[in-house]
Amino acid sequence: MQALLAPLLELADHQEIVRDRQKEKGIIQVAGCTNSQKTHLMYALSDGCEYRVIAFSSEEKAKKAYEEYRIFTDEVYLYPARDLLFYYADIKGKVLTNRRMEVLRALIEKEAESPVTVITTMDAFLDGLPHPEEIRRERISLSGGDEINLTEFEARLSALGYERESQIEGPGQFAVRGGILDVFPLTEELPVRIELWGDGIDSIRSFDVESQRSVENLEEVTIYPAAENWEKGLGNVSFLDYFPREKTLLFLDEPLRLQEEGESVEEEYFHSRESRLEAGMEEEEEGLTVFETKTVIEKMNRYSGFGFTTLESKCGMFKVRETYSIQAKGVNPYNSSFELLTRDLKRMKRNGYRVVLISGSRTRAKRLAEDLRDYDLSSFYSEDMQRQVNPGEIMVSCGYVAEGYEYPMLKFVVISESDIFG
Fold first, then answer.
1. How far is CA 37 from CA 100, 160, 310, 333, 334, in A?
2. What is the CA radius of gyration of the chain?
């Protein structure tokens, strides 16, 4: 990632910030940040950290950051929050539970020291989850040759939120026909067919739902819960509790805004609950735990991390242990004017700027690099993000950046395709 990260090593406070990031608990406020540049700096400051948790105030911001972060690494997950007002009314079936359980699985199965990044929203920390040890204990692992009691196995699947059907059609379902057990594990792309010989497992195969044809023979399969509200002997925990404090860095986008969003969701939920009780409606949230925003922030203050703000400002209940300011700004849009773009790039070339231009298509990126060379610009196309960009050069690559950004003091700029064409 030298193309995007090397210039930051010249930032006056960079080494000091990295050195101090986990010395104490609480957040280091980094002021002067802007939009997509925050994602860039988040990745740069996370290097060498095992767990990275990035929190935004809205789902839209989280999704955008998730797409941007993938230019740096594939080991990134988007963890969606549940709507606490309609917790059990998942109109998308098991889709939301599936996406959340995939992230929990990745955290539970993570190999030691391998880095993982999770992007989410503040309200995702408010609802209670099964303790990670509970999920480890309750998940079902099957291998060829294992013996199972089919009746007990069916009861166990039901307890984990799986629904019995005559024929499975989607994740979170299972079906039994004689000595054949079909299960669609919530965290898998394909269902599996388990054939029994007596009480022993004779074979495990994945298969296609539509054609019912086998796809692949499997040696084993792990079945994770298809619900989040099953019986929990160890009690509920926040999603934040899935991350060990000493190995985790928090990256908080506009901390005060996070607090306000959490308090808003919390207030709306408890007000709605109170109104239903006053109206004599039955309590539907049995097994649902909702943590107060204050409690979540108190937990966050026991971690080390960063708070990224546009302006140097107060961060509410978040514990700020140090503040740094950087110079960064957005890129002015070119409104599809190639003349404006080339004029700006020539100015940057004269001033020794390093430019990275990101396009969403390889074909468009290659064509853009060729077109810029016709204007006597030192542009080249490369997918090797380890290649360092020299002063005066323009590297065009494929990826996604929502908005461009510039570090004036470093003479480094990233331009997105949307900056050029809108």
1. 27, 42, 11, 16, 19
2. 25
